[in-house]
Amino acid sequence: MGQAHRQPPWPSVLPRPVLDSTPPFPKAASTSHPPGSGRASTDSAWKADRQEGWGGHGGAMEPTAGPVRYQKLLLWDPGLESEEEEEGTAETLILDTWRPQDSSGNEVGGLPGAWARLVAALLLLAVGFSLAVRQLHTQGGSTETLGSVAPPPSGHAHHPGVYHHGAIISPAATCSHLGRELLVAGGNVVDAGVGAALCLAVVHPHATGLGAMFWGLFYNSSSGNSTALTSGPAQTLVPGLGLPSALPTLRLLHTRFGRLPWPRLLVGPTTLAQEGFLVDAPLARALAAQGTKGLCPLLCHTDGRPLGPGARAINPKLAAVLRRAALAPTPDLAGEALLGLLARDLGLEGPSAGPMPTLEPALQLPVPQGILLTTPSPSAGPELLTLLQAALHSRGPSSDPCPPLLQATVTPVSSVLATVDSSGSVLLLTSSLNSSFGSGHLSPSTGVLLSNLVAKSAPNVWACPLILHSSLDDTEADVLGLVASGTPAVAKVMTRTLLSHLAGSQTQAQQGPTESPSICGQGTLLQVAAHAEHAHVSSVPHDCCPFQGF
């Protein structure tokens, strides 16, 4: 009878036995060990096991055809690679005592060690790639024309422009992305809208800016209240140059309804002005049409040519103004630094009176489908409600919803944006310098283009944002927001769009907002809606305005 196999006296982390002709270990000088140290008994066990051959007799281990020798533990050496290729690769394995293994060191029922590691590496690579793709979809690309729709945690997908929480749409991809970042950071639609408006003041100086006049319409789904924002009556610094009112107007709106700290909203716009922004297609077209008179060096090459698409523009003077505005504790002080610098540039002691922005209740018109909301005079809001009331009374749109434009009419240049969340809160903002690049007067101390809106200007026909709050039943309410620019017939365009929406069947209404109709002339129409706990955004033309959401 053979002796029972004895367990080797070293931990299981040493290399597994391999059949090899390499000498087992290098010879070393013998050492003596004190009695009782345990080392002597270990050496004895070692010798006994070597004599038994570990499998040369019957027992727990399988018999082998010859003596079993142990490959010494090799440290990697580049010089040994050729030798290993000739003699065969000696693997060093750390045995997993929690997994059954056969005598060759492989898992029972598994692949050989090298193949197992290869499969595991491929699996890890596939998982990492999948996580990376999901992260990119979640964050969304700021350069996408129509925004991105990330699959929500529940796994179901949405059409482009439909989001679980909130969304923003504006004429510039950079500003839509900035607004989305403010929403993700915990801000509300007012934070996102004001931040995006300040961004547009930097990257779209042809249509808006700190020298522009602003109108806004805000519906608060939490309170059910609707508020109109106005810059107050137009005033002048000097004849032909309008008094800037953007900073105190936007600051007032944020102070009343914003959630994030005011300086947080100015971080993005200030960085764009200081470090530079890329000229996009709308700005490049405006520069090509306008020329560069009065706009250099801000928007010109060194040889006087206007900047083209993709060129970088910087406005460090404007960045300095925004940094000062970020420190303003009240709306009144938000624009004082700007006004002081402008007065110095123009050789004035100071403006006779500062801007007088206001927040007041929105105009309302009850209709069978709900309540219509818009801005008061001197905007085009009252004209819009009159047109809608007449059209609804006649139960149909006018025979000529897009009448020929009057020859004497000059299309005012304006900028629009809209934000919405899934609860139904909506903010619509529209602003204008009156003409492309306003007065064309660039303030050297502030980097601000002044408007040519003056006290005797006609009513702000470019400003008539519209919100329809419709209640389908006692528990569910839909909200639709419309804002247009780029056409002198804004009120007629809004009337036609709303009538088209109301003409949709009840079934279509339950499926979500209707498709936006075409717009008269070369204008832009933004549409936002809250329906079935989702935020919806779209535009006409459909690719004119990038949107972002989450």
From TrEMBL:
Stated family: Belongs to the gamma-glutamyltransferase family.
UniProt keyword terms in alphabetical order: Hydrolase
InterPro entries, per the entry: Gamma-glutamyltransfase, GGT_ssub_C, Ntn_hydrolases_N
Superkingdom of origin organism: Eukaryota
Record's signal peptide: none
Name of protein: Glutathione hydrolase 6 isoform X2
Keyword Ribosomal protein among UniProt keywords: no
Biased composition (Polar residues): 29-44
Region feature Disordered, mapped onto this chain: 1-65
Organism listed in the record: Equus przewalskii (Przewalski's horse)
Gene label: GGT6
GO MF assignments: hydrolase activity
